[in-house]
Write a structure and sequence with these properties.
The chain has about 140 residues and is of the alpha+beta class. The protein has seven helices and four strands, in the order E-H-H-E-H-H-E-H-H-E-H. It is about 40% helix and about 20% strand. It binds adenosine-3',5'-cyclic-monophosphate (CMP). Adenosine-3',5'-cyclic-monophosphate binds next to loops. Major role in the synthesis of nucleoside triphosphates other than ATP. The ATP gamma phosphate is transferred to the NDP beta phosphate via a ping-pong mechanism, using a phosphorylated active-site intermediate.
Length: about 140
């Protein structure tokens, strides 16, 4: 089915001018960027976005990393978009990511892993709604 998923190009990617190279991999996979904006997220926004991880030992570092510079938030649309984008991203830990994936090509570490993608339809809907109003998404 045609789905939408939510993506963040993280501060390590914006800092190294990699947003275009990552977008090229996204588009090559057949995903369409139907919304996109560059934002400096606040600590409160980062804590809300990653609330599911708040008991994890890496939560504090995750929040600091995500507010350490601008990010690019996106909505991606396409057939089976949630799974497809996770395949394009590769494993969370770049040392375990397959060749040709975003994280294998670009990520620095598990914390600075260049991009985020929603893990399920329910989380995709919540994440998209946190960052975009309906009229900002143009399919
Ligand atoms: P992301 O897909 O954005 O979702 C949660 C993030 O936590 C993950 O990518 C990683 O960047 C980050 N993270 C930092 N440390 C760890 C860790 N030890 N295990 C899993 N995720 C981690």
């Amino acid at each position: 089915a045609i789905e939408r998923t939510f993506s963040i190009l993280k501060p390590d990617a914006t800092r190294r001018n990699l947003t275009g190279a990552i977008n090229a991999l996204i588009e090559k996979a057949g995903l369409r960027i139907v919304a996109q904006k560059r934002v400096q997220i606040t600590r409160a926004q980062a804590e809300t976005f990653y609330a599911v991880h708040k008991e994890r030992p890496f939560f504090g570092e995750l929040v600091e990393t995500m507010i350490g510079g601008p990010v690019v938030v996106q909505v991606l649309e396409g057939e089976d978009a949630i799974r497809k984008y996770r395949d394009v991203l590769g494993a969370t830990d770049p040392s375990k990511a397959a060749p040709g994936t975003i994280r294998k090509e670009f990520a620095l570490s598990v914390g600075e892993n260049s991009a985020h993608g929603s893990d399920a339809p329910e989380t995709a809907a919540i994440e998209i709604a946190q960052w975009f109003s309906g009229n900002e998404i143009v399919g």
